[in-house]
Each structure stands twice: as C-alpha cells, then as structure tokens.
C-alpha cells in the first residue's frame, strides 16, 4: 500500500489542523491495514502519536496528545485522519502516517508501510 500524508502547515498555539493520509493499495484493500501516526521533531527520534485498528473501533494515543488529538479513518475513502486541536509549540514536527498488517501498536517496527512526512509548525 502506498500512503500520502497531507494537511500540515503553520498554526498558532491553541489552533487546529487536520492531517490526512490517503492510501492506494494494489493488493489487499485498505480496511485490511491498521494505521498510525508518528512524528519526528528536529534533532529528536521519531515517536508514536496515535494508532487505530482496522474498523476504527479501537484507538490509542501517546500521553502527550491524549485529549487533544483524534485519530479516525474512512475505509470507504481509503483515508485516515489525525485531528489535532489545542496545538502546542512542542507539537512541531514532521508527521508521518504508517500502515501495518497486524497490531495497531506503538512501535515503528509494527508498520510496514510509510508515507512521506508533512510538516506541522506551531508558533507560540
């Protein structure tokens, strides 16, 4: 499956952005895959943000974004989303969407497919 992330940009602290991850699969259909978002700030390691299972019925969040970010998916549109509210300067990073064939976990190794990143910058 090929993934393309979009929706990043520059926003003031307290603002909102919605990231999208469009999937194109030549093999298994999109609902087969679990999805996740990771982020990497300058000079730091890539970290888990959120994940969602195949149906969208189970979601998981890093403590740093819980209550502010919402992950979702529209299987009919082959698209995943990350709604980010009450953004903080520390949320500034390149955000990556990922898809996996097994468990919607927190480790990068659980995801076989990655999209290009989209930059999110939050000004104070």
Ends: how far apart?
A: 37 Å
Helix content: under 10%
Mean pLDDT reading:
96
Number of helices: 0
Report the sheet-strand fraction.
over 45%
Low-pLDDT runs of 5+ residues are none
Structural class: mainly beta
Radius of gyration: 13 Å
Strand tally: 11
Instruction: Write down the overall geometry.
Output: globular
- What is the N-to-C order of secondary-structure elements (H for helix, E for strand)? EEEEEEEEEEE
State the major sheet.
Answer: 7 strands, mixed
What does this structure look like?
The chain is an all-beta fold. The chain has strands spanning 2-6, 9-12, 17-24, 34-40, 47-52, 59-61, 69-74, 79-84, 93-100, 113-114, 118-123. The strands form two sheets. Strands 2, 4, 5, 6, 9, 10 and 11 form a seven-stranded mixed sheet that branches. The mean pLDDT is 96.
């Amino acid at each position: 499956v090929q993934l393309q992330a979009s929706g990043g940009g520059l926003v003031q602290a307290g603002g909102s952005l919605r990231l999208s991850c469009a999937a194109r699969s030549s093999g298994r259909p999109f609902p087969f895959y679990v999805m996740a978002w990771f982020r990497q700030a300058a000079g730091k390691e890539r970290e888990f943000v959120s994940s969602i299972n195949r149906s969208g019925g189970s979601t998981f969040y890093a403590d740093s974004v819980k209550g502010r970010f919402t992950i979702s998916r529209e299987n009919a549109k082959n698209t995943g989303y990350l709604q980010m509210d009450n953004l903080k300067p520390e949320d500034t990073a390149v955000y990556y969407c990922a898809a996996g064939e097994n468990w919607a976990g927190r480790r990068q190794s659980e995801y076989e497919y990655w999209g290009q990143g989209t930059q999110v910058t939050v000004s104070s």
